[in-house]
Specification:
Blueprint (H helix, E strand, L loop, with lengths): L33 E7 L5 H8 L7 E4 L54 H4 L7 E2 H11 L6 H4 L2 H5 E3 L23 E3 L9 H10 L11 E2 L5 E4 L4 E2 L2 E2 L3 H8 L5 E4 L3 E6 L9 E2 L2 E5 L3 E12 L2 H11 L2 E2 L1 H6 L6 E2 L11 E9 L6 H5 L1 H14 L11 E5 L23 E6 L14 E9 L7 E3 L10 E3 L6 H18 L8 E4 L2 H5 L3 H11 L1 E2 L28 E2 L1 E3 L14 H18 L4
Parallel strand pairs: 1-2, 1-14, 2-10, 3-6, 4-5, 12-25, 14-26, 15-16
Antiparallel strand pairs: 7-18, 8-9, 11-13, 13-14, 17-20, 17-23, 17-24, 18-19, 19-20, 21-22
Helix pairs in contact: 1-7, 1-15, 12-14
The chain binds flavin-adenine dinucleotide and 2-acetamido-2-deoxy-beta-D-glucopyranose (NAG) (7 copies).
Length: 600
Amino acid sequence: MRSFSLFSFVLPTLLSISSLAVTLTDVSQLETFAFDYIIIGAGNAGLVVANRLTENSKVSVLVLEAGVTDQGVIAAEAPFLGPTLTPNTLWDWNYTVVAQPGMKGRTFPYPRGKLLGGSSSANYLFHQFGTNEDWDRLSLVSGDPGWSWPNMKKYIQKHERFVPPIDGHNAPGQFIPSLHGFKGEVFVSLPGNNQTIDPRVLAATEQLPEFPYNKDTSGGDHSLLGVGFLQSSAGGGVRSSSSTSYLAQANTRPNLTVLINATVLKLVQTGTGSLGAKSFRGVQFQRSSTITVTARKEVILSAGSVGTPQILQLSGIGNSADLKALNITPIIHNANVGENLSDHTLLPNIFTVQGDQSFDGILRSDQETQAALNQWVQNKTGLLANNVVNNFGFARIPSNATIFKTTHDPAPGPNSPHWEIIISNFWFNPGIDRPPTGSFMTLVVVLITPTSRGTIKLRSSNPFDKPLIDPNYLTTEFDIFTMREGVKAVKRFAAAPAFSDYVVGPFGDSFSAATTDAATDDYVRGLTTTIFHPVGTASMSRSFSKHGVVNPDLTVKGVDGLRVVDASVFPFVPSCHPQGAVYLLAERASDIIKFENPTS
Ligand SMILES: Cc1cc2nc3c(=O)[nH]c(=O)nc-3n(C[C@H](O)[C@H](O)[C@H](O)COP(=O)(O)OP(=O)(O)OC[C@H]3O[C@@H](n4cnc5c(N)ncnc54)[C@H](O)[C@@H]3O)c2cc1C
Ligand SMILES: *[C@@H]1O[C@H](CO)[C@@H](O)[C@H](O)[C@H]1NC(C)=O
Ligand SMILES: *[C@@H]1O[C@H](CO)[C@@H](O)[C@H](O)[C@H]1NC(C)=O
Ligand SMILES: *[C@@H]1O[C@H](CO)[C@@H](O)[C@H](O)[C@H]1NC(C)=O
Ligand SMILES: *[C@@H]1O[C@H](CO)[C@@H](O)[C@H](O)[C@H]1NC(C)=O
Ligand SMILES: *[C@@H]1O[C@H](CO)[C@@H](O)[C@H](O)[C@H]1NC(C)=O
Ligand SMILES: *[C@@H]1O[C@H](CO)[C@@H](O)[C@H](O)[C@H]1NC(C)=O
Ligand SMILES: *[C@@H]1O[C@H](CO)[C@@H](O)[C@H](O)[C@H]1NC(C)=O
């Protein structure tokens, strides 16, 4: 049976708990239609910029968000419930990918958060910054040393507030304090619920030189290679999103206006800038009617890797031939808009395990899940206060592997990973429902350095039509090679002595049959989906490069008054779960915007 949900929880509707960000104005309360800045999308990046720009009370900002509030949405608050927020819910854009040739022609959901906080409110809370090599490559590609790690790492202090785990355990050896911030906006914490497989995982890191223990999984100057404890964007047993942090801190500022349920239809040209470039300082959005607002200084597009290229194309900024074919008047020709989509893939490798120590029994029982929910509501402890996994790690393809005879190593450097292992104490498969009986352990393989590139194109000129999302997964030799090697490696992981009295064997016919390269490829192509990390659709490049969509200062090429600040500007997907990288990007973007628009 295909349901595409990780687990089905009976979500309570009656419960309304501690208030998050204050719910925002109705359109009739808009006192003006002109603002200094208009930010499109109250997501991961957009709310960082909204907060930083309104630190100066003289600066007025309007944020337009298509989605609903996150307030009182329990699934957005209890960390373990993160995976129940999507797909196909009130908080999701409900996208699907077009049929994927590298995946046996399959199509599947492509979730994106549609609520305050955007995908930072709907994600699975894994929190990392990427490797120093990711940022140094961005600096090299863009020609801007400001994007290099030595400069970017200072933003950790503004962004991160590392807090103790909910069980209060002393955690030396589970993270390295000098790599973290303790006074920033977003809570980050280690697991606070010792899972039964944790000691086995740690023992495996001692038994297998291939998977050494990693003392800190945040990245930066410290290597991501090896297996360690997950750091989650949560504190006190509650999710921390850009809404509960950056927005909540700024919500009382009189010059910040955030309008929810306001879908941006397109940008509107407003004349010509000082250097002759066309200005796009008008924004048309739909609430009960169509309303146009204008920015005195800039429009900042933070609608994410799907929404941003969609809005650019709807505004006549994109590939002219594609736009004409849809009866949209091209205004700025840029064939790179919506191109170069790059994403991480996810393959759950499920093992049957002994006994009843996995979470499968609890998750099957309405009574036990209800008890866990009650406990979380009561005092924010227990199963639901914790993330869905405790341990994960990263690895490289060995440098003597045959693939490097034909493919240049796509990693940003010799210390960055090619693939990821996520270790789950239960049936973790967003594509297939848990069987009615049995206990499981899942070792997810994620491709971290994809070389396949895809596209986001418009389906029509109607802004409410879902765009055509084609990540074009697993269409290169490197990508299928790396997934295949990942499957072989997680089998070696599960074969560690630490699991000998626990793991029974691979679950399912296609995983069991994956004993040759051909059969493994078949298994990979048949079951892999996404881990929801799209980037690249408004790529950053050098200032005078004709390739790419934005300049190193994130202004849109050939356009006046318009910037993009979100994951779409990363030309390569960071070697990690990207929300932390998006936060750092948005912190620096805010500094750039302030610098380029001095207020007297
Ligand atoms: C299900 C899921 C799980 C994930 N898990 C993790 C994880 O565990 N760790 C991690 O690091 N990353 C994870 N990610 C990825 C991470 O959350 C995203 O990469 C990141 O949040 C993207 O930030 P953004 O600012 O680019 O976009 P978003 O945060 O998605 O913000 C875009 C905002 O723009 C709004 N918008 C879009 N179009 C319009 C429009 N036309 N009008 C008005 N508003 C609009 C959207 O509603 C949204 O609020 C996950 C993502 C998903 C979807
Ligand atoms: C709000 O912003 C406007 C426009 O920049 C400015 O004129 C006004 O003084 C600001 N209001 C406050 C309370 O600072
Ligand atoms: C997504 O699907 C849910 C459930 O069917 C629905 O309530 C919601 O309105 C849909 N949202 C969008 C943007 O299509
Ligand atoms: C976790 O529990 C196991 C026993 O189940 C114990 O051996 C181990 O020390 C615990 N680890 C931590 C970090 O508390
Ligand atoms: C959102 O806006 C639409 C019209 O654009 C309207 O039909 C709907 O009732 C609004 N929902 C809320 C919660 O305001
Ligand atoms: C939280 O509540 C549960 C019962 O629901 C209880 O067992 C537990 O001890 C409480 N924890 C704390 C820290 O108060
Ligand atoms: C790579 O090197 C390792 C260790 O030196 C060796 O075991 C392995 O067979 C080599 N692989 C290839 C493809 O040459
Ligand atoms: C887009 O992808 C192509 C092919 O993968 C590459 O040559 C080009 O440099 C990329 N452009 C940007 C701006 O990233």
